[in-house]
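Hi W.,

Here's what went into the run:
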Amino acid sequence: MLRAEGLTRRLDDGTTVVDDVTFGVGRGEVVAVVGGSGAGKSSLLRLLNRLDEPTAGRVAVEGVDQASVRPADLRRRVGLVPQTPRMFPGTVADNLRWAFAERGETLGDDAVRSLLERVQLPGYADRDASSLSGGEAQRVSLARVLANEPQVLLLDEPTSALDEDTKGEVEATLRDLLSAGEVTCLVVTHDEAQARRLADRALRMRDGRVVEEGAVEEVLGS
Amino acid sequence: MITALSDNTWVVALSQAVAAVLLVLAVLLVAQRYGVSMFGEATWAMTRGFVQVVAVGSVLAVLLRGPVWTAGIVLLGMFAAAASIARRRAKGIPGAYRLILTALLIGAGSVIVVMTALGVMRWEIATLVPVGSMLLSNAMNAATQMVERLRSDIDAHRGDIEAKLALGGAPASCVAPYVENAVRASMIPQVNTMTALGIVFIPGLMSGMVLAGADPVQAAIYQFVVIAMILAAGGLTAMTAAVLVRSRFFTAAEQLVVPAA
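Here's what came out:
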């Protein structure tokens, strides 16, 4: 489904934040990207969503080189849920409809309801998005990306900005969502226990490079 | 008192300038006593300002005797100088000079052309150059304030903008709230001026016309017209600059880049 080849990002000051990374993610597979702080995990996700430009290498989705795809289309297909949820002004439903309104389309009430049920926030459509708790906002942020029906879902430290209780709630939502095998997902986490609970395979990064790749048990130990 | 010094108007004018300079120097000395050291900066600004304004007066004295089209050349020179000054505030933004010059020509330039065509500004050098320069200087300030505000707002809201980009948002709509704020902020000084007109201050042009013997009510109406033109020129320049500059915050692949100030 997703294939990165020789993906590299070098900053203007010469620092290499992602260094010659090659890996693949199969359809319906959940792959955890683990590693210490500054290993290049979040930088890798930004390259896959093309928020940053790779210095070298390529990303293909279903065999299509993403350099040839319009950035807006790529970002809908490869949806990124950022580490810190950013709520847009308006209601929760306005947030879910934002990307649709942006391209002149509409997202019906039923679709909004169904998305909120998927992230376990039924009845939240008319809530003011600015009044949500951190965990609720993170789940709305997830639903907002799911609304685009991405082929690949990128989760950047989805629970690291949350307190322990809320972390459990959001992780439960993610487990339900990912266990159905319908979503292809790359999840960045520094929490190896969480990686074990969510993922089928894991990549370990260090200094911008992938240093280990394989089944979760192999990479993280049992 | 100074006017009684001599019948020669040059002596009187220069004596008035000396009196004004002495007054500023006295204020600077007092400020220095309180630890505010602006002596060097302020004396340099005063010297430069005096030389510049006398040079402009001399040029005007020559131009006023020449054909009216020379006003166009003088104004174009002022546009180029204004864009060059404003560019310093837009440091790091690629193509800033051309961008601001275009915004000034579309904003202040079109107001000058339309108002001259309508007969609001007289087709004479004595009106075109001084009134045109008022519109231009205010438009230049509006453009620089807008660019500075937009840059700082975009820098402060990188996360929100990238959250929208990551959903497939178009760069223009991702920064739309900040563009709106920046344009509004750049117009506040002109709107305040309009609101305070005649209550808080009596502007220079009106004062000058009254001193020159014009009817105060007619002078007031013309002052209103000039302030309205300044507001229109500033608003149009800021909006044009905003539309032109917002794309400079994105790469060809629609990635956010905020140039360092």
